[in-house]
Amino acid sequence: MKTLSIIVLITATFLLFQKSRTPTVSTITGDAMGTTWSLRCEDAEQYRPLVYRILSEQENILSHWRANSEISRLNAGQITEVSTELKRAINLAEHFKAETRGAFDHTLLRQTQAAGFAPLLATEKHNYDLSAMAKGYCIDLLTATLREHGLINFVIELGGECYASGTQDDGTPWPVLIPSPTGGEGVTVYLSNQAIATSGNYQQVAKIENKLISSHLIAPNTGKPHLAKPSSVSIIANDCATADAYATALFINPKLVLPENTKAITLPETKP
């Protein structure tokens, strides 16, 4: 009887310990690449150093806001040989430019500078600007790395672009809010193993007397800011780089044919 009591006590203690150790879903946030990021998953805090490391590495490679980043040094003609990582990103951008027939264009840095949405760094040699896909590209790197570390169910977000992996605890897809470009209610979509990215002219813009005079979105055919009523285009795709690039491309060219397994959600201007 004493032995049985000990076994019962040990079992109860073990179950109590297991219950106290049950992972809880939480959200962590941080700053990187001139914007914010968030990760929602079980025991999210343990992944903070990993997220910071990857985003810091990519910022040192891809940021045109940093004079000493690899892409800035390439643009300035300070280097001719580039890392495998930067070459991979540029090749992907060239793929998107070809697929969108130029609606996505990663060679408009001087035009973006002229519009006031990029720093006036030296760009004598090249004109690369990967900002229209950089966040999505980084999200894909983070997604792959988190999965390599055994994480299955999570949402990783950077500057509004995100990937929803797996499901919530109850097996349902993750809810993701698409903000309204005019401050309205927005639209909620439900994603599982999908990415979403949004492009619009309602945030990074310049106005005089409430009139739009400049935008960070450059029309490749004119080289000038793409001016339109406040609106946004969101793309749902299997990876975030594709979603990011096509969100920009479709905003520039609304008649663009999307690839398979992608979906567009457009939020036009609405009257209050």
Features of the shown structure:
T-fold, alpha+beta, FAD, EC 2.7.1.180, two-stranded antiparallel ribbon, metal ion binding, 272 residues, ApbE-like_sf, seven-stranded antiparallel sheet, metal-binding, disordered N terminus
Describe the fold and architecture.
The structure is a single chain. The longest helix has 19 residues, at 2-20. The chain contains seven helices and 13 strands. It has helices at residues 2-20, 48-62, 70-75, 84-99, 109-114, 131-148, 240-252; strands at 25-32, 35-42, 154-158, 161-165, 174-178, 187-191, 194-200, 205-208, 211-215, 218-219, 224-225, 232-237, 263-267. Strand 1 (25-32) and strand 2 (35-42) form a beta hairpin. The chain has a single domain (25-267), classed as ApbE-like domains (T-fold, Roll), CATH 3.10.520.10. The N and C termini lie far apart (75 Å). The protein is globular and about 55 Å long. Residues 1-20, 202-216 and 223-227 have low confidence and may be disordered. Strands 1-2-3-4-7-12-13 form a seven-stranded antiparallel sheet. A two-stranded antiparallel ribbon has the order 5-6. A two-stranded antiparallel sheet has the order 8-9. With 272 residues, it is an alpha+beta fold.
Please give a quick description of this structure.
Helices cover 34% and strands 25% of the residues. With 272 residues, the chain is an alpha+beta fold. The strands form four sheets. A seven-stranded antiparallel β-sheet has the order 1-2-3-4-7-12-13.
